[in-house]
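Researcher: Next sequence.
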Amino acid sequence: MKKERYEIVAEGFVLNKKGDRLLFMQRTKPPMVGFWLPPGGHVSLSKGETILDGLLREVKDETNIVAEVIDLETTMPVTLDERTERIPTPHHIQIEDIDKKHDHIDLIFICRAVNEGPLRSEGKKGVSWLSYEDVVRLPMPENIRDLAERILSGLVPLLPLQ
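Model: Next structure:
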């Protein structure tokens, strides 16, 4: 069903420097109260914010972590003209059904932390670095758990962490 509006959202699966934990937040408001999710949120395109700027701002605002996006581009680079800039390739793009009037177009990126703390809890949200064992046992949507497990198991090809 076509919606009245679509909003751009960016989420980051942020790896710690060692590459063995991912940054997650526990939601305290609907939808998905109590579920653990990667940081992210709305991109303010109308205010001149790019998708990557919005993603990195949301990660910093929500967790106090400065991150950088891992570019997942694995094919031959495309030749671009001087007016065009290539941005890092997201892991995937999805449309989330939010309510009867709008959906989110959600760009999912994989990132690495530039700093690792201290973590900030926004409101009453828990913010934590989760291990594979944490991801398996804590409440989260299955699609989030699946990608987190794949990243932490090394099944998502990433450039070597520095």
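Model: The chain has a mean pLDDT of 89. Helices lie at 51-63, 132-137, 142-152.
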